[in-house]
Design goal:
This protein is mainly alpha-helical. The protein is built from 5 helices and no strands. Helices cover 60% and strands 0% of the residues. Helix 1 crosses helix 3 and helix 2 packs across helix 4. The radius of gyration is 13 Å and the shape is globular.
Length: 73
């Protein structure tokens, strides 16, 4: 499960409702939730955040908090 899938689970978010509100189809939401190789695009994150009434910036930070800059040598 991806960070987005875990986020949806933690918040009990209905993917069908998100799909209806955003226009992102259910198959794409399923891929974004379950397949690590599938990348969430910025516009998708923004639309999802609007649909579930959360701040897009906070959602971005929560989903990508594991990203770090590479260490300089």
């Amino acid at each position: 499960m991806t960070a987005l899938g875990l986020y949806f689970s933690r918040k009990s978010i209905n993917r069908s409702e998100v799909a209806r509100k955003t226009g992102i189809n259910k198959t794409r939401l399923s891929e974004l939730s379950n397949q690590e190789k599938t990348h969430l695009r910025a516009e998708e994150l923004y639309l999802i955040a609007l649909a579930i009434d959360v701040d897009p910036g906070e959602m971005f930070i929560e989903l990508h908090q594991d990203l770090k800059l590479p260490e300089e040598k």
